[in-house]
Write a sequence for this structure.
């Protein structure tokens, strides 16, 4: 059976960046998350079967600067003073994660707390898994980042990401 590019590991990270330019605020968020050195390719929301969730500190050394790296990423930016922005990734892990795939969800919003945005993303992933399997997940989790735009209206970007390791 052909498996192609199926990730063996995944780690979660998030970051915030601020700059007068929108693109540079995104770069600063990538740096804060520790994933600025890679050519990131966003993919949709499947957590492969038998994909081990590892800590960022374990996953990052497995990647090489300039490497093409697949990620599920949530991103939000604003330059509206005092605007709160959020970016979250939810994860629903099936009861048998060795045999079955799970779901990852992206949620980006305005005005929500980090906790609320994270729980919302987690619930999205749980619902996506349930509509496919008709079973509740074995475990759910999320990673979120929120920030408030400064009074000067500098661009602020938040990201949350599930980063795959092949």
């Amino acid at each position: 059976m052909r498996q192609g590019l199926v990730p063996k590991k995944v780690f979660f990270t998030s970051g915030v960046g601020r700059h007068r330019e929108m693109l540079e605020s995104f770069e600063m968020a990538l740096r804060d998350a520790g994933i600025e050195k890679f050519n990131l390719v966003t993919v949709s929301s499947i957590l492969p079967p038998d994909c081990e969730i590892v800590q960022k500190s374990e996953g990052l050394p497995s990647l090489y600067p300039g490497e093409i790296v697949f990620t599920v990423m949530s991103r939000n930016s604003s330059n509206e003073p005092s605007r709160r922005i959020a970016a979250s990734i939810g994860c629903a892990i099936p009861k048998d994660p060795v045999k079955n795939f799970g779901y990852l969800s992206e949620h980006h919003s305005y005005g929500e707390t980090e906790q609320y945005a994270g729980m919302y993303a987690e619930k999205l992933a749980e619902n996506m898994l349930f509509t496919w399997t008709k079973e509740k997940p074995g475990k759910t989790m999320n990673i979120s980042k929120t920030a408030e735009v400064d009074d000067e209206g500098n661009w602020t970007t938040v990201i949350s990401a599930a980063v795959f390791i092949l």
About this structure: DSSP finds three helices and nine strands in the chain. The beta strands are 9-19, 39-42, 46-47, 52-53, 68-78, 84-93, 102-110, 139-148, 155-165. The radius of gyration is 16 Å. The longest helix spans residues 114-133.
